[in-house]
Amino acid sequence: MKREALVFYSPTDDPTAWRDALAAELPDLDFRLSAQPGDTSEIHYALVWKPPTGFFAPYPHLRLVTNLGAGVDEIVGRNDLPDVPICRLSDPGMVQLMTSYVLFAVLRYARDIPSFERSKARGKWEFIHPRPFAEIKVGLLGLGDLGAAAATALANLGFTVSGWSRTQKQLAHVNCVSGAGALDGFLAANEILVCMLPLTPETHGLLDKRRLALLPEGAKLINVSRGQVVDEAAMIEALRSRRIAEATLDVFVKEPLPEGHPLWALDNVLITPHLASNTTPAIAARDVAESIRRIRRGEEPLHRVDPKRGY
Ligand code: NDP
């Protein structure tokens, strides 16, 4: 008898955790690794991260492709995608991790921690009077699942928070603006800028030399989106001159960030290895399973992306 199966591929995620998490939700679904797919006519679902070119060709009966993460830049835009819904993950665990990272990075600047780290290295007791958070303007580029949650958490702490998106949003206590025409003024107005945009043809290189120069003197930059959204050379130049005073970077044009890369040498840059957020299979499997149930019923899956739009 034919079975319904899902094919899994990821160079980084643990298949056992996903197998167990999905079995708890959908005991009737076969979980197969792409290295041993069995009868490929039984494979209706794909759960993938960075699949190689041509990956989907052996599976003509696919009904749904789920990207094993929030960022879909590695999957949309390629010309070997099957003509089926493409979904991304968005789970509360991922939102919580990302929010915690952004709060940490913003608070670290708001409370002058990098200055105290440098004072400590010099053996100096150097008092800096803490500023009220309401005086500190934080701008978030991107108000999606992750950006909106981070903006709300920052607003709840009392920061003056603004957010920029493609289409207009309404978020309590967040000054929301939208569209390309609003970007220059937005950059000039925020002393801490958090980049939470997806990488798309429109956002590639968006923070170029001209736009980085619009940030207020001594601005702080936090990038948790994708390295390619920022002109890395222009950012390094601005960090060297301290026009941009500090940066917290989780994502880079080339990952892992190569040994000897100029960013490693900058003492005003905090580098983390692309882990601002990631997926917890036990939590994320609920939505993956729900999308499969919806596809079975002929309904729209959760968190569908628009490949033409790029996110
Ligand atoms: P969403 O797709 O939910 O939201 C994207 C946001 O960006 C939306 O508000 C969207 O506007 C806005 N946007 C997209 N294009 C433009 C544009 N051209 N101009 C203005 N605004 C634009 O994404 P998430 O919030 O879930 O995630 C954001 C990104 O974070 C991911 O794409 C991924 O690259 C990155 N990420 C990084 C991780 C890490 O560990 N560092 C982990 C997870 C994700 P609108 O609302 O109008 O559509």
According to CATH, the fold-level topology of the largest domain is Rossmann fold
Going by CATH, the architecture of the largest domain would be 3-Layer(aba) Sandwich
The CA-CA distance between the termini, in Å, is 38 Å
Helix content: 25-40%
How confident overall, as mean pLDDT? 97
Oligomer type: single chain
**Widest sheet, order of strands:** 8-7-6-9-10-11-12
Per DSSP E runs of 2 or more residues, the count of β-strands stands at: 12
Strand fraction band? Answer: 15-25%
Q: What is the assigned CATH homologous superfamily of the largest domain?
A: NAD(P)-binding Rossmann-like Domain
Specify Rg, calculated over alpha carbons: 21 Å
The assigned structural class equals: alpha/beta
Rough outline: elongated
Bound molecules: NADPH dihydro-nicotinamide-adenine-dinucleotide phosphate
Counted by DSSP, the helix tally is 8
- Report the sheet with the most strands, covering strand number, pairing sense and barrel closure: 7 strands, parallel
Low-confidence stretches: none
Task: Give the class-level CATH name of the largest domain.
Answer: Alpha Beta
The SSE order reads: EHEEEEHHEHEEHEHEHEEH
Q: Estimate nothing, just give the exact number of structural domains.
A: 2
Can you lay out the helices and strands and say which pair or pack?
Blueprint: E1 5-9, H1 15-25, E2 30-33, E3 43-48, E4 64-67, E5 86-87, H2 92-110, H3 113-122, E6 137-141, H4 145-157, E7 160-165, E8 174-178, H5 183-189, E9 192-195, H6 209-212, E10 219-223, H7 232-240, E11 244-249, E12 269-271, H8 281-296
Parallel strand pairs: 1-2, 1-3, 3-4, 4-5, 6-7, 6-9, 7-8, 9-10, 10-11, 11-12
Helix pairs in contact: 1-8, 2-4
The structure holds NADPH dihydro-nicotinamide-adenine-dinucleotide phosphate.
